[in-house]
Specification:
Length: 238
């Protein structure tokens, strides 16, 4: 039986230590994700860490450190596909980026333990936990600071509601009013909103908009014949 011939106790114990370390460190990272009810929780994070450790440890056992480097690169790309599965887009908002990044870091922890770099794996785990917990109060504090419209890079859209018959004239008037106010458009699109209701959406090129000026432009656009409603909105999702 080939297993009896190839089995070596000390290398096997080394693998046990590597995989056990990946399991423990992955559990620490995953417990925080599970507590916050994220898409990828405890089990997923542990499996990512242990799987990465197993692949790297296998390469180390079979071909040495040189082959392990190649396996690590494959682990990194493979986790990228897995992380994409937890990212969801809801309208202008994107959810799951932090969870995907945490899975990526869990794979890094597993790769460290699989390469017998346990101290480095513990260090990476510490920084991952610190990023997900200790930085949270700082993030909340920053989010409470009012956004400076002049200093922030945001996407601004002017939206007019009209009907099919008035669409060409309203579209032309929208572009003219914005260019007159020195807010040239990057894109103008139409969106159907039920029977005989169409929205004309103009995306502005400028990333620094004066609210009062844009309010005045919208007020003038509301008086254009055929315009039922006019408004503008901003988004910093990009």
């Amino acid at each position: 039986m080939r297993f009896v011939q190839t089995f070596e106790l000390y290398p096997f114990l080394d693998s046990v230590v590597s995989l056990a370390a990946a399991f423990i460190l992955g559990s620490l990272i995953g417990a925080e994700r599970q507590y916050r009810q994220r898409t990828a929780g405890l089990r997923t994070t542990v499996l990512v860490a242990v799987g990465a450790a197993a692949f790297v440890d296998l390469a180390m056992r079979m071909s040495g450190a040189h082959e392990a480097v190649r396996v690590v690169s494959y682990v990194v790309s493979g986790i990228g596909f897995l992380g994409a599965g937890v990212i969801m887009k809801e309208g202008m908002n994107v959810r799951g980026l932090n969870t995907a990044a945490t899975l990526w870091c869990a794979a890094a922890v597993g790769a460290c333990t699989g390469a017998d770099m346990l101290a480095e794996g513990v260090l990476v785990t510490f920084f991952v936990l610190a990023g997900n917990t200790l930085l949270r109060p700082l993030v909340n504090a920053i989010n409470r600071i009012p956004i400076n419209e002049r200093a922030s890079e945001a996407t601004y859209e002017v939206v007019l509601t009209t009907n099919e018959a008035s669409l060409p004239a309203v579209r032309e008037a929208l572009v003219e009013h914005l260019e007159a106010a020195k807010y040239p458009t990057r894109d103008v699109r139409t969106v159907e909103r039920g029977e005989d209701a169409v929205e004309v959406v103009a995306v502005l090129i400028s990333t620094a908009v004066e609210r009062k000026e844009l309010d005045q432009v919208v007020e003038r656009l509301e008086r254009v014949p055929g315009v039922k409603h006019a408004t503008w909105e901003s988004s910093t999702a990009d």
